[in-house]
Amino acid sequence: MTGISDSTDEAQIIASILAGNTHHFHDLIRPHERSVYAMALSLLHNEADAEDAAQEAFLKAFRNLANFRGEAKFSTWLISITLNEARSRLRSKKNVKMESLDESPEGQGSVTPALLRDWREIPSEALERKEIRQLLQQAITDLPLIYREVFLLRDVEELSVNQSAEALGISIASVKVRLHRARIMLQKKLVPQLKKANPKRRWFSWS
Amino acid sequence: MVLECKHVWEHISGYLDGTLSPEVREQVQKHLEHCEICSAILDSTRNILILTADERVFELPLGFSERLHARLEAEIRGIAPAPSDTD
Questions:
Q1: What distance in Å separates the CA atoms of residue A57 and residue A32, rounded to the nearest whole number?
Q2: What angle do the packed helices B64-79 and A47-63 form, to 10 degrees?
Q3: Total tally of structural domains belonging to chain B
Q4: Which residues contact B54 (CB under 8 A, 6 or more apart)?
Q5: What is the ipTM score, two decimals?
Q6: Residue B65 lies in a domain
Q7: A115 close to B (CB below 8 A)
Q8: Residue A115: which of B42, B37, B19 has the closest Cα?
Q9: How many domains does chain A have?
Q10: Which tens digits make up the pLDDT trace of A98-148?
Q11: How many CB atoms lie within 10 A of CB A44?
């Protein structure tokens, strides 16, 4: 997360790049590589496409840096560029069953969570296990596109509800509804899987 | 007013984000105090959000940075005049 001093640094680096020190662009984007790639991969499903889309997003950011206005955070701006890059690739893919961006299922019935009586917390250390990382990745990428986009912006990239609404071109109310559904869908899918992957005893025995 | 479980589920996301109105929040909280199912749903959802936000979930492929910066370098050299030697 970008603190105040980081964003000041960022503003200085951007000013410097625009003044001609273009090689500083390398430093500017280093902290954002992972989040841009994560966004592209979750939307495009395929590592090679995701890498190419991520590169393209960074190139676009470089070419359009003069249009970046300091009102938004640089990371937010970059994520919007990535989202648009991934969306246009999804649109142009042939023979892929089109996931509609216009679909508006807000009115449809609610999503039911997985029911359970108690939950033993899964610690972040569990992410050292590839199996756990893959479960999470798969669950996110399996979400229908309209839910996946909102979830990624809000819960993975940590944009605000307003920023997410702006990036997606949808209302704040839609962001909230879709986000809620995305979270419940993930809970429903992941609870049984994580319980199974989480042995009752010796949770830390591998570490 | 007493909330039923299925109505509580509709507020889980808002509850986690702290965006519920004080009245609804209080009703949800009261329900959670005596309902172990809804409490477990809330706890598991919160736990899952913490895990999915972890940057380890999406690893960069090997060599990603090198390839990215090489492509950027080519672009930067193409666009920019000779790098300044002031810094």
A1: 11
A2: 30
A3: 1
A4: A124, A127
A5: 0.85
A6: no
A7: yes
A8: B37
A9: 2
A10: 555 444 455 556 789 999 998 999 999 999 999 999 999 999 999 999 999
A11: 22
